[in-house]
Amino acid sequence: MSARPPHPRARQLRTALAASCVTLLLAATGCSLGEPEPDPAGEPPNLPKPSATVGSGGQEIVTTVLAQGLRVPWGIAFLPDGGALVTERDSGRIVQVGPESTPDGLRVTEVQTIDGVVASGEGGLLGIAVSPQFAQDRTVFVYYTAERDNRIARLRLGEEPTPILTGIPKAGIHNGGGLAFGPDGLLYASTGDAGDTDQSQDVKQLGGKILRITPDGKPAPDNPFPNSPVWSLGHRNVQGIAWDGDRMYAVEFGQNTWDEINQITKGKNYGWPEVEGRGGDEKYVDPIVQWPTDEASCSGLAAVERMLATACLRGQRLWLVELTDTGTVLGQPQALLTEQYGRLRAVAAAPDGSIWVSTSNHDGRGRPAPEDDRLLRLVFAGGGAGRS
What we know:
By secondary structure, this protein is mainly β. The chain folds into 2 domains: 1-72 and 298-388, no CATH class; 114-296, TolB, C-terminal domain (Neuraminidase). Helices cover 7% and strands 39% of the residues. It is built from 4 helices and 25 strands. It has helices at 8-20, 24-28, 134-137, 198-201; strands at 51-54, 60-67, 73-78, 84-88, 93-102, 105-113, 125-130, 139-145, 150-156, 162-168, 179-181, 187-190, 209-213, 230-233, 238-244, 247-252, 258-264, 289-292, 298-303, 307-312, 318-323, 329-336, 344-349, 355-359, 375-380. The protein has a 5-stranded antiparallel beta sheet with strand order 1-2-25-24-23, covered by helices on one side. It has a 4-stranded antiparallel beta sheet with strand order 3-4-5-6, with no helix packed on it. It is globular and about 55 Å long. It starts with 7 loop residues before the first helix and ends in an 8-residue tail after the last strand. The model is unreliable at 1-46 and 383-388 (pLDDT under 50).
């Protein structure tokens, strides 16, 4: 199959990103990479020396460690100044990373600890989203595990959070936790089945769903089910959600066989617990990509110029999936960073077009190095993922 010509914006992005580092061709002939130049998005110049690697499909990538010494960084959300807010699952802390730099990377500053977080198992302080009007309202939103439930709250940094949606089921496993504003300006949240598979097919329950709400926590207008925050159902445990234009995607933890990426459509049923992976039943939506669980178990998801990036825990890699103009998969997904940094959890598209990824080696299932957990910046220096 012939390769689709890169989208003009994607071509410009990749050219700019390749120029912002050094070419990997020069690196291969013995020249050092050096430090990346500052860019218009406000990235500071004093960053650790990057390293160059090549993924399974030939994708060239430059990786820089932005921060280290974190503890189970779970969610990443960018501020207008180019810095990012990062949640720590077990400590309940929100830290700000950058935009200021130090000789060792970006400056990490504790913003606050969220009172009421009850961290246990897979629960704790999970997703975070910055208001689209942050410059005016200074508001952020968090998803966290409390004493009796998972909940979504809004707050101004440094102030007490106000819960806006409560009663999301909690357990030691499958708490979901993804949180992001969609292109429609509404807040989306992903929930898990909390170990109770019956939740996922019951539209009256909040578990095993993707929810769509207003910034006040009310069911969004024109949701598919009357007076309900439910946007889609039949999920086992979704954590990562992202948009390529107006198309929404989510990454799903399977049970024993398949992990998935799904294109999310209003009111559709994604089959759990009746189906894991592609089932061929017209009642349920099949995933666009599926992997064996030992190659994936992916948590975070980001979209950059028709390319999806998902960060995997058990699989200890970053999968790249290139999309066609119609939102289907182009070529074969390719793996990056395989077993280089251990378990990977959060992934977010930065304002400058790079991708930030967090490790999760302190989550009780990894083997932490002295530097863990780390926050990485990835820059792609070649063509798209999985071209054929």
